[in-house]
Amino acid sequence: MRTVTVVGASLSGLYAARELRAQGFDGRLVIVGEETHAPYDRPPLSKEYLTGRAPEEDLALTDAEEHAELDAEWLLGVRARSLDVRGRTVVLGDGRTVSTDGVVVATGASARTLAGARRAGVHTLRTLDDARALRAELTGGERRVVVVGGGFVGAETASSCAALGHTVTVVEAATLPLVPHLGPDMAAVCAALHRRNGTALVTGASVAALHGTTAVTAVELTDGRVLPADVVVVGIGAAPNTAWLAGSPLALNDGVLCDDGCVTSLPQVVAVGDVARVGGTRAEHWTSATRQPRAAVTNLLAGRTVADARSVPYFWSDQYGVRLQFAGRRREGDRVRVTEGGIADGAPGEDGFLARYERAGRTTAVLAVARPRSFTRARRELARETCETSETQETCETSEIQETGETHGVPA
Question: Is the Cβ–Cβ distance between 262 and 256 less than 8 Å?
Fold first, then answer.
């Protein structure tokens, strides 16, 4: 290959570019990014950046030295419009074309929004520009904030807004936040963090309408309640950015369909990060975005799948001053057992806890609240056991798990 184009200049795209150079690709490297910003870290957007504890310069993922080492052509502030496989080109939104031999699709995902007319005071939190706008609105005195969606981004945003002294309500359509990830018992324990820190939690209801002509004044719920609001943050998930690939030979279904090595139906095209459905699963987590590129680039340069990108799922979230960490695959019917620490009045105890999900005598997943060292050991054990017992020979990553835990979390 003489030219490889990475479409997407966020975390997974940057890691793919790094892997290309690390694995010996010395040809032309083009990186296309829709945002005007150089790659930056998204997890702090809902936490340290939103609360003012992290300046923008701390978000940067690259510096001048790395830019020189990558020796890439950066095309920022322009989106990809289409992929012309026959002509071997990526067509850009401004009409330019990039001739290429290989493509890494790393276009990520976009925040889902509420239906209806746009109003001032209604925000999503996915990009740096989103965070800038929300941060500016939260610094003008106390606000009544309604966070729609109790997932990771919603919970972290609610935590940050509460820390800033705002009155916060979280609205979750499900019976509890994070039930699909944690199961009902542990989801209830983690949901108690909201109430313990003064955040109201409304479950089993969704948004029926927003009130206000030009600026939001209230949120009307499907159960008839009306919540006064000066600021509304919508955290109801994200949709993969695949529209530019419509009409291409790539298979699309809630993401770009890939095999276990991130290879699409075309061997010269791989996909990584939030946009990639790898082996049937699309994972919007920092760890997926940083680990998939290694196998993807190996396979791209080989012209076929020779490396596996699968791993034991792992995510974490910082809420109300404590870290939630989860690894593994929970299934319905798993037994949950607290093996360290404890639960007090339905909430994590002062020293947090470590819980194991078990099935047929084996640990299938682990959850920790405010126990990072215990979690790291349990996660290493889980990864080792999975590697030893899996019929599909999943990638063993125990050597990459640091004793102190990791420092990044769920993408905002």
Answer: no
Is 108 in contact with 8 (CB distance < 8 Å)?
A: yes
In one-letter notation, the amino acid at residue 322 is V
- The crossing angle, in degrees rounded to 10, of helices 286-302 and 11-22 is 40
| Per-residue confidence (pLDDT) for residue 98, from 0 to 100 | 97
Task: Tell me how far the alpha carbon of residue 229 is from its chain's centroid.
Answer: 27
E strands of 137-291, at which residues? 144-148, 167-172, 200-203, 207-211, 218-221, 226-228, 231-234, 238-240, 256-258, 269-271, 276-278
Whole-number Å distance between alpha carbons of 256 and 311: 19
Query: Which of 310, 326, 315, 306 lies closest to 369 in space, CA to CA?
Result: 326
Contact 294, 19 (CB under 8 A): yes
Classify residue 126 by its DSSP letter: S
**H-type helices in 57-151, by residue range?**
64-70, 128-138
* Ramachandran sector of residue 68 (left: φ over 0; alpha: ψ -120 to 50; beta: rest): alpha
pTM more than 0.90: yes
Quote the radius of gyration of the chain (alpha carbons, Å): 22
* Residue matched to tokens 């997974």: 12
Question: What is the predicted pLDDT for the residue at 397?
Answer: 55
Q: List the structure tokens of 164.
A: 């800033």
Which pair of structure tokens corresponds to residue 250?
């790539």
pLDDT along the chain (412 residues), means of 10: 96 98 98 97 95 94 95 98 94 96 97 90 97 94 96 95 97 95 95 95 96 96 97 96 96 97 96 96 91 97 95 91 94 94 94 96 95 95 75 49 44 40
Helices (H), 48-102: 64-70
CA–CA distance, 105 with 66 (Å, rounded to integer):
21
- Residue 312: count other Cβ atoms within 10 Å of its Cβ: 24
**Alpha-carbon 215 to chain mean position:** 29
Classify residue 62 as exposed, middle or buried by CB count within 10 Å of its CB (0-12, 13-18, 19+).
middle
Count other Cβ atoms within 10 Å, centred on residue 225.
Answer: 13
Q: Comparing C-alpha atoms, which of 173, 227, 169 is closest to residue 204?
A: 173
Return the pLDDT at 245.
97
- Quote the pLDDT of residue 389: 59
